[in-house]
Specification:
about 160 residues; alpha+beta; Ganglioside M2 Activator Protein, Chain: A; four-stranded antiparallel sheet; 9 strands; TRP_N
């Protein structure tokens, strides 16, 4: 009986580990549902999912633009259970993607390590992209989760 419990525990640990290191496509909503944004966001992939505290997480945003983008900025606001917890502004062309961005499909990718003390749970991220003339190109929101432990924590069970 003890052997069966050990096998079940190992199997569950492996399942949890596998689900935590795979990426997840996340549902995206536009800030203004009636807005006609110049940049259309097709999806966001978050890896690993859920995000592990103290470990790198990558957010990859697939988008399309009808016109070339030569510069701009990204504004990010994060909320935890409805409470604003973080804001940052980044240069669109420094690290997230390279400019100029040709008309058509492109990906903005951003990796970040969340502090080990970040509370687990559900977060909402709002991202706005502006061109170099401060014209808003898009505004999206999506949810993501931060797990209770890292993948290595689960693997060591």
């Amino acid at each position: 009986m003890a052997q069966l419990r050990a096998i079940v525990a190992i199997f569950l640990s492996l399942c949890l580990f596998a689900s935590s290191v795979q990426g997840k496509a996340t549902k995206v909503t536009y800030c203004d549902k009636k807005g006609n944004y110049d940049v259309k966001v097709e999806g966001v992939e978050i890896s690993p999912y859920p995000v592990a505290r103290g470990k790198p997480a990558t957010f990859s945003i697939s988008a399309t633009s009808g016109e070339k983008i030569t510069g701009g900025k990204i504004e990010i606001d994060v909320s935890y259970f409805g409470l604003h917890v973080h804001s940052e502004t980044q240069d669109l062309c420094s690290g997230t993607t390279s400019c100029p961005i040709s008309a058509g499909d492109f990906v903005i990718s951003h990796s970040q390590v969340l502090p080990g003390f970040t509370p687990p749970g559900s977060y909402t991220l709002r991202m706005r992209i502006f061109d170099e003339n401060k014209h808003q190109l898009t505004c999206i929101g999506f949810q993501f989760s931060i797990g209770f432990g890292s993948a290595s924590d689960v693997a060591s069970i």
